[in-house]
Amino acid sequence: MTVVTKRPAPGPGREPTTPRPTTHRSQPRHRSLTRALPLSPAVVLLLLFLAGPIAYCAYIAFTDLQLTGQAEDSFVGFDNFRTAFGDEAFLNAVWLTLVFTVISALIGQNTLGLGLALLMQRASKPVRTLTGAIVITAWVLPEVVAGFLLYAFFRREGTLNAILDWLQLPSQNWLFTLPILAVSFANVWRGTAFSMLVYSAALGEIPKEITEAAEVDGAGGRRRLWHITLPMIRRSIGTNLMLITLQTLSVFGLIWVMTRGGPGGRSQTLPLFMYEEAFQKSMIGYGTAVALLLLLVGSLFSVVYLRLLRTEV
């Protein structure tokens, strides 16, 4: 026996109703909120410890705040920035910062890191272990410790001159005659390990079939490097250049321990100039303006590298 269930008829004056289709407009918004919720603590911390101090520094840069000598600070507009661009010491620090960055990061760490990565790819296991241990040990040393070691290496009675005297070659006071080159070499020695690790990981991702096929076709090592290896690790090169540039722009302890920016300001980069103006001369407003300019320089480098990374090979 079949039981048939009938829907009750609508009452008088009422029209029959049909079920409304379920809408899904609120689901994407709900999903977005659900995905963003775990990120909210990190966003709050970034706003608290990064955006907040930057905003406060931006405010101080437009004041004449000093550590001593006056009770209250006042708004001075762009006077600190005009003073900076008219200050020969500031312009000298900008030039030395660019020289230090190009020599130690773009040329030194980047090129040497790539060379070590290529060497370790083909070397035996004992050679890879020894090379990696030496380079990474220099990288993990604190800046101050590395600065004292390199100071002992370059000083007048240091290790480098002892080696030159043993080889009967002329020696000199490297920290006095060539201070910016000495601190650049020190930064190369300390920071090359990062580039080596980045490039070692990138080279490991290149399919061996491609390089083996090129070798079978008669391509030499230089052609394989230029036409296969470098194009395939292009994005790693750009990322590495951006990171080591930003790191080098902020180097302070290494140079401070070795030369303190001297002699005569010949190794005074922007971080040391900023420290001297803000804390030794007590001009916090002026020093903070220099810090904002340094932040702007780092941002410009980042924009250039990011635009290069978007370009396809």
From TrEMBL:
Entry keyword set: Cell membrane, Membrane, Transmembrane, Transmembrane helix, Transport
Biased composition, class Basic residues, residue ranges: 22-31
Main location: membrane
Listed transmembrane segments: 39-62, 93-118, 130-154, 174-199, 241-263, 283-306
Bilayer disposition of the protein: Multi-pass membrane protein
GO BP terms, alphabetized: transmembrane transport
Region spans: Disordered: 1-31
Residue ranges of coiled coil: none
Cellular component terms per the entry's GO annotation: plasma membrane
Domain ABC transmembrane type-1: 95-305
Compartments reported by the entry: Cell membrane
Comp. bias regions, Low complexity: 12-21
InterPro entries: MetI-like (IPR000515), MetI-like_sf (IPR035906)
Family, per entry: Belongs to the binding-protein-dependent transport system permease family.
Protein name: Sugar ABC transporter permease
